[in-house]
Amino acid sequence: MNNDNLLRLDNVTMAFSGKSRNQGTIIAAEDVSLSIPAAKPSVITIAGESGSGKTTLARMALGIIKPTGGQVIYNGQDIWQMSPDQRKAYRREVQAIFQDPFAVFNPFYTIDRLLRTPIRMFKLARNRTQARDMIVNALEKVGLRADEVLGRYPHQLSGGQRQRIVVARSLLLQPKLIVADEPVSMIDASLRANILTKLKELRDDFSISLLYITHDLATAHQISDKLLIMYRGRLVEAGDATSVIQQPQHPYTQLLVSSIPRPAPEKPWQGRITIPVEELAVKSDRNGCLFRHRCPYAMPECAQHTPPYYRGNAGQSVACILHKENGIAVNQAGQITVSQ
Fold first, then answer.
1. Across 117-181, where does the E strand assignment appear?
2. What span, in angstroms and rounded, lies between the C-alpha atoms of 168 and 48?
3. Which of 114, 149, 309, 319 makes the best surface tag, with the fewest CB within 10 Å?
4. Number of C-beta neighbours around residue 313 at 10 A
5. CA–CA distance, 24 with 17 (Å, rounded to integer)
6. Per residue of the chain (340 residues), what is the pLDDT tens digit?
7. What global pTM score does this model have?
8. Cβ atoms within 10 A of the Cβ of 10, count?
9. 119 with 146: CB under 8 angstroms?
10. What is the C-alpha separation between 20 and 295, in angstroms, rounded?
11. For residue 132, how far is the Cα from the chain centroid?
């Protein structure tokens, strides 16, 4: 199996049973494919509004939930077919930063104990002195002094400090990939830039790849190499982050980008665009293009089949028949590879 990719999601689908008979089956992710290269550390961002399926993809990448279709492949091995030793290595090399820094820690444990736990679990230190040295070093890498946080409990620290401790905990394990699910959404705005800088340093200083999950295209643009846009469980656009933000090709991406506040006076904020939509039709119909109920350019053909990925005008892959004349962007619809 090809090991050129550190992580590959190969046509993964995640379907849940609805809570009631009327809901039926809920498709959280549908035939999604992406890859993260092994040779070059990268920041790959999955963006979309609430309910788009981006967190479901993160949970599948972490091995928290098993896809109902497709494969999650790490270093050439299906993570659900790994041996116990392979699974342990995967758990060490793929770490997570979750959204809520207030809920991730046991409130009854000191920061010392929380940071010693992974060292003990993976037998990373010979003694307590070496373990403490590792902890102090990891804290310094994220801009924290040991005397500021060690010996204290989580409730005694700010949200920004807690999130940096989560990053430090990951660094102790020397991971190859960190999956960060909305890591700054619950942090004060004044602290977000600092956390984003630390996330970029994971790639630049420690050669760690990052799968960044967000609804905020402004932060995505700030740190991403590649940007993938999701809508209702499907990828609709993917490409170089700057191209996707500056020259969005899919109507849904254009909608998201138009909602980004623009600080430049000559480019005033366009405000949030609201498109009328029949919500019942959107939820029940998964035929054709899923965005057609909200799309100002919708045409009868949009309802007939799921659009393949065409080449966008700025080099992206875009699932929209408006770009049909540009030709197919990938060999198989649904397989967007962001490894170049």
1. 177-181
2. 28
3. 114
4. 11
5. 6
6. 457 899 999 999 999 886 666 667 889 999 999 999 998 999 999 999 888 999 999 999 999 999 999 999 999 999 999 999 999 999 999 999 988 877 888 999 999 999 999 999 999 999 999 999 999 999 999 989 999 999 999 999 988 899 899 999 999 999 999 999 998 887 777 778 888 888 888 899 999 999 999 998 988 988 999 999 999 999 999 999 999 999 999 999 999 998 877 655 454 444 444 444 444 444 556 889 999 988 999 999 999 989 999 998 888 999 999 999 988 876 443 445 444 4
7. 0.88
8. 19
9. no
10. 30
11. 31
Binning the chain into helix, strand and coil, the percentages to the nearest 5 are 35, 20, 45
Please state whether beta strands 226-231 and 234-240 pair in parallel, antiparallel, or not at all (unpaired).
antiparallel
Q: Cα angle at 70 between 64 and 75, to 5 degrees?
A: 70
User: How far is Cα 186 from Cα 221, in angstroms, rounded to an integer?
Assistant: 19
Alpha-carbon span 232 to 14, nearest angstrom: 12
Sign of the torsion formed by the C-alpha atoms of 263, 265, 267 and 269? positive
- CA distances to 46, 66, 191, 231 from 224, rounded to whole Å, are 10, 27, 19, 19
Nearest Cα residue to 181 out of 139, 234, 140, 219:
219
User: How far is the C-alpha of 293 from the C-alpha of 145, rounded, in Å?
Assistant: 52
d(C-alpha 267, C-alpha 231), whole Å:
27
Please answer whether residues 32 and 9 qualify as being in contact, where contact means their C-beta atoms are separated by less than 8 angstroms: yes
